[in-house]
Design brief:
Blueprint: E1 20-23, E2 29-36, E3 43-44, E4 52-56, H1 57-62, H2 68-71, E5 78-82, E6 88-92, E7 108-112, E8 115-116, E9 130-137, E10 151-157, E11 166-174, E12 178-188, E13 193-204, E14 209-210, E15 220-234, E16 237-250, E17 257-259, H3 286-290, H4 293-298, E18 327-328, E19 335-350, E20 354-372, H5 384-394, H6 407-413, E21 422-425, E22 439-442, E23 447-466, E24 472-494, H7 495-511, E25 517-520, E26 524-545, E27 550-570, E28 574-577, E29 606-626, E30 629-640, E31 643-644, E32 657-658, E33 661-674, E34 679-699, E35 702-721, E36 727-740, E37 745-746, E38 759-764, E39 770-775, H8 780-795, E40 812-813, E41 823-827, H9 829-836, E42 853-856, E43 862-863, E44 875-883, E45 885-886, E46 892-902, E47 905-906, E48 916-917, E49 920-930, E50 936-943, E51 951-956, E52 965-969, E53 974-982
Parallel strand pairs: 7-10, 14-18, 38-41
Antiparallel strand pairs: 1-2, 2-3, 4-9, 5-6, 7-8, 9-10, 11-12, 11-53, 12-13, 13-15, 15-16, 16-19, 17-52, 19-20, 20-23, 21-22, 23-24, 24-26, 25-28, 26-27, 27-29, 29-30, 30-33, 31-32, 33-34, 34-35, 35-36, 36-44, 37-43, 38-39, 39-42, 40-41, 44-46, 45-46, 46-49, 47-48, 49-50, 50-53, 51-52
Length: about 1000
């Protein structure tokens, strides 16, 4: 029987079963029988009453599925996207990773060889030497129960084979100077021991053009190696040992592109209607607010030190943004490093009617990524007057300002004078930045962020299962997992932050009669210093054959999770003496810093704990109409543990924790084989009742997670058609409907006015956060008059602790096409809150006189009832066609074409045009020539034939950063040639 590398993959290319080809008695592979472990035991794929898709290693190569992202192009109701903070979201049936933070758990459980992984970088490497990849759709309430509310992705590596030496190699070259080399060797070490080693190396040039010059950005260079040892001391005992290491070090971009509908008022930064190739208005940012004439005036600081005015040109005024999603203009070259070390072990023994297995995993993960925060270069000409003033003060030329308080600032950030380079704090861990000699200097003002992480984890699992002759069988198991994160930080650095930290620190110290000092940290850092997660689960299933054709499965699982978090958030938070060389938190003034206002006294860290436990499970009834036809109905309950929100800065009234998720899933399915394998057709329909879905948004520069309820339903169709052995056609289709259930009020970060014309959105000049006020009687004129009156009071210096001269201007309308019904103004939220509560009634300002005023610290909430969930396209379909031309000399030629379409979706729960992700089509093709007996092959390939910039996800940044949108896309068109051998 002649078969090619591609033909060997066809039986499992897109069917809804996890799969591995089954060994026949003669040792050959039967392409039409697929053995799966979706129920933690070997079963034929078509006999498993679970919606699951799988690919063998050969199928992955046949369909050019090189990584986790590519899986979405074939699988129904599956999407995958990178996210903002070096992670990703694998969404199944509308359930994905919408929670952001170190204490969030993945909704899609990632397993390696049936064992769970934590914070894995597995999705970043490319697939090589795999036995199969399984994707189980739907909550797995029993066997994979911990946090698997969406489903499970299980990557199964190829195992050593006894008594047979094997080797294979593959080399590939393509556009972007892409090189890929991978290989495998299998070595028998006697009759009962075998070793298998495999590895991959990938290197390519960048996809993204930098208009500032230099090599293209977003390149890749990575390698991964693994070794496996299998020992079979007896026919009933198998011991597997596994070790792998993955490393990437390149200039890959974490955030690809930013879009904005520019807000000319500067209050929002970006408007709420479209995503355009326009710069955000930097007057909306933290640095612009605290370095503005308006803010310095209320602090009594000479406005000659101001970098600009909130009503004047901003840093990006007149700066163009390239429309192309893979063209940027940056002075900061991205840096990306990650590594993952994994060890696994498993021992299995068959006692006859009872089998037992014990397995364990250890992981260690490192991650560090930096890149330009705004992907653009801002102007410095507007800074010139302020820098000249600073240089004069540093030289002692400004009367009343001692040089000792300003010379350290100038030395740190403009070491060669106001016309020289501008130095920005490096992302150091000791909180001193440029004022400790740790800086990056350039002729333009830099701004960049950093996301880093270091964690380790281990888990152990034991399972006992039966194979009894009677109608009753069972499976019992338990798992314990321990996860420890010792560093996770997100930094934002900018020249203007250093300027503000130094200037305000010096004036604060001078006014208080203290030695010269700056405000630490001179950058934003949200730092989780320590996180521990301890989790265990006890689970079991029973299988009862009611008759020869009717089977009942029932399962229960007890989940217990405990999380402890130590974290803090800092940004110019306390005085640090100039010249200090140790950690900023060794400052004699650190006592003024409080990381935990919710606890009496001042704490350096906030410490919180959360505990969750839950009972989940499933019940399945399946009926075997014939050997080739199965129908089933099932109910399962999924659970994902809750967590803790990071500390906020400034402090807002938001929950410290978020609740666990719970989903009740009802499913009906049918699996069918017709015409002796000529057609495989699988059908699934499902309905989910989702409670407390975890959802994230940015509040005060920090991700805050909340809970909502949702309803989800949909259907999936998968088919493989083989009219004769040389043809194979695979098809997939899915429909998905998601909606927020019940009246659910939430504030939209893009529109703090909640769509109300009687609201005013306020940009707080003291911290660049937003708030809103609205009329309790619906009077737009009244609320505008109220804001203008309060701003007049602030301008006059009549507010205690606030000096006059801010010159705050009246409320203004946003552009008519901006999607904002409210008006806006610069102001001080705390003063407006006090005024709305009647604090100024004695001064003749009575809120009732303006029609009644309501204050909203987190924005005016809007009802999102009926909105679609993010990353949940209603329609998806895919098809692939493959033909094998067999030649008389034993060679074969196999062309293949794949086409996938993903329908429109939204990147935010608030939906709307600005959050719309357009539908996209992706097409791949390849042709492969196989040598006699498949000992060698050569191929040509092309991916993304249409060279489309297909967006997979988006992320809306904070109001104090300008509300621009980060987008993530699939890779551009790639093509090349490859060759390989195997024996």
């Amino acid at each position: 029987m002649r078969k090619s590398l591609l033909l060997a993959a066809t039986a499992i290319s897109t069917m809804s079963m996890p799969a591995i080809a089954q060994d026949r008695d003669d040792g050959a592979l039967d392409d039409n029988v697929i053995i799966v472990t979706a129920q933690r035991q070997a079963q034929s794929a078509q006999d498993v009453p679970i919606a699951v898709s799988a690919f063998s290693g050969a199928a992955l190569e046949a369909q050019q599925i090189e990584n986790s992202s590519d899986l979405q192009l074939t699988l129904p109701n599956i999407t995958f996207t990178k996210t903002n903070f070096t992670s990703s979201s694998f969404t199944i049936r509308g359930i994905g990773d919408l929670c952001v933070g170190v204490s969030c758990d993945q909704a899609t459980a990632i397993h390696l060889n049936d064992q769970p992984l934590f914070s894995t970088r597995l999705f970043e490497t490319e697939f090589f030497d795999l036995e199969r990849v399984e994707v189980l759709r739907g909550p797995q309430g029993t066997l994979f129960g911990r946090n698997a509310t969406a489903g499970v992705v299980n990557v199964v590596t190829a195992k050593p084979r006894m008594g047979e030496f094997q080797a294979s190699g593959d080399a590939e070259y393509g556009n972007f100077n892409a090189i890929k080399v991978k290989g495998m060797v299998n070595v028998p070490l006697g009759d009962t021991l075998a070793f298998r080693g495999a590895g991959i190396y990938v290197k390519r040039d960048g996809y993204t053009t930098n208009l500032n010059g230099g090599p293209n950005l977003d390149d890749r260079e990575l390698y991964s190696v693994r070794g496996s040892l299998r020992f079979e001391p007896t026919p009933d005992t198998t011991i597997d040992l596994y070790a792998s290491y993955f490393r990437e070090n390149d200039n890959r971009m974490r955030i690809q592109k930013q879009y904005c509908q520019r807000d000319p008022t500067g209050i929002l930064g970006c408007l709420n209607s479209t995503r355009n190739a326009e710069p955000f208005n930097a007057n909306s940012t933290f640095t612009a607010a605290l370095s503005s004439r308006e803010f310095l005036a209320i602090r009594g600081i000479p406005t000659a030190f101001a970098l600009g005015s909130l009503y004047g040109p901003d840093q990006y005024d007149g700066v163009s943004i390239p429309a192309d999603s893979r063209t940027v203009n940056t002075a900061f070259t991205p840096e990306y490093f990650t590594s993952e070390l994994t060890f696994q072990g498993k021992i299995e023994h068959d006692f006859g009617p009872i089998s037992a297995q014990l397995s364990g995993t250890y992981q260690k993960v490192k991650l560090d990524s930096r890149q330009d925060y705004n992907n653009n270069i801002g102007r410095r000409d507007g800074y010139a007057p302020a820098l000249n003033t600073l240089a004069a003060a540093a030289a002692g030329l400004v009367p009343g300002l001692p040089a000792a308080y300003f010379a350290p600032i100038a030395a740190a950030i403009i070491p060669n004078g106001p016309n020289g380079v501008l130095c920005t704090s490096d992302t150091d861990t000791i909180g001193l930045g440029a004022f400790g000699g740790n800086s990056n200097c350039a002729t333009t003002p830099l701004q960049y962020d950093r996301s880093n992480q270091l964690n380790s984890s281990w888990s152990a699992e034991a399972i006992i299962s039966s194979d009894l002759d009677g109608p009753f069988n069972f499976l019992l198991g338990g798992i314990y997992a321990d996860y420890h994160l010792t560093e996770n930080s997100y930094y934002v650095n900018a020249f203007a932050i250093d300027y503000v930290a130094g200037l305000l620190g010096s004036f604060t110290a001078l006014g208080g009669g203290l030695p010269p000092a700056f405000l630490g940290t001179p950058y934003f850092r949200n730092n989780t210093d320590d996180l521990t997660v301890k989790s265990y689960g006890l689970f079991g299933e029973v299988y009862f054959d009611i008759s020869d054709t009717l089977k009942l499965t029932g399962g229960l699982r007890y989940n217990n999770d405990k999380k402890n978090v130590q974290a803090r958030s800092t940004l110019a938070s306390f005085l640090v003496p100039y010249g200090q060389t140790t950690n900023a938190f060794d400052s004699p003034y650190v006592g003024s810093f409080d990381a935990d206002p919710g606890t009496a006294g001042n704490q350096i860290y906030q410490n919180r704990q959360v505990k969750n436990d839950e009972i989940t499970g499933r019940a399945v009834l399946d009926y075997k109409i014939s050997d080739d036809n199965l129908i089933y109905v099932s109910y399962s309950r999924g659970y994902k543990s809750g967590g803790l929100n990071p500390p906020l800065q400034p402090i807002f009234a938001v929950p410290e924790s978020f609740r666990p998720e719970q989903v009740d899933a009802f499913e009906i399915g049918s699996k069918n084989t017709f015409g002796d394998g000529a057609l495989q057709l699988n059908l699934t329909a499902f309905y989910y009742k989702y409670k407390d879905l975890q959802l994230s948004k940015i509040v005060a520069r920090t991700a805050v997670n909340e809970n909502i309820d949702a309803d989800i339903y949909g259907a999936e169709v998968e088919a493989v058609i083989r009219p004769d052995p040389d043809w194979m056609i695979n098809m997939g289709f899915s429909y998905l409907h998601t909606k927020v259930k019940g009246d659910t009020f939430n504030s939209d970060p893009r529109d703090f006015g909640g769509g109300r014309s009687d609201a005013v959105i306020i940009k707080d000049i003291t911290n660049a956060s937003n708030c809103a006020v609205a009329s309790s009687t619906g009077s737009a004129a009244g609320v505008n008059q109220f804001v203008n009156t309060i701003n007049t009071v602030i301008n006059a210096g009549l507010v205690p602790g606030v000096m006059g001269g801010a010159n705050l201007q009246p409320t203004t309308a946003f552009p008519a096409n901006g999607g904002i019904a409210s008006t806006g103004a610069f102001g001080i939220c705390g003063v407006l809150e006090a005024a709305a509560a009647g604090a100024f009634a004695g001064a003749g300002i009575n809120p009732a006189a303006f029609g009644g005023i309501e204050y909203f610290a987190a924005g005016v909430p809007k009802n999102i009832r009926g909105n679609s969930l993010p990353q949940a396209p209603k329609v998806k379909f895919s098809t692939g066609v493959q033909y094998t031309a067999n030649f008389d000399n034993g060679m074969s030629l196999v062309p293949r074409v794949d086409l996938a379409y993903t329908g429109e979706s939204f990147g935010s729960i608030f939906n709307g045009n600005v959050n719309r992700i357009k539908g996209y089509a992706q097409a791949n093709a390849q042709i492969q020539l196989n040598g006699t007996d498949d000992k060698w092959y050569v191929r040509g390939f092309v991916q993304n034939i249409f060279d489309s910039n297909s967006e997979t996800g988006l992320y809306v940044t904070d109001q104090s950063s300008g509300l621009y949108t980060n987008v993530f896309t699939l890779e551009p068109r790639r093509y090349g040639i490859g060759a390989g051998f195997k024996f």
